[in-house]
Amino acid sequence: MDYTKIKQWLKENLNEERYLHTLGTAECAKQLAKKYNIDEEKAYLAGLLHDCAKCFSKDKLLDIIHKHLVVEESEMLNYKTLHAPVSAYIAQTEFKVTDKEILSAIRWHTLGRLDMTDFEKIVFLADKIEPNTRDKEYSEKIIKILEEENGLNKALLVCYKETLKSLVKRDLKICLLTVEIYNKLQDLVQN
Question: Could you tell me the residue range of the domain that residue 16 belongs to?
Answer without folding.
Answer: 3-134
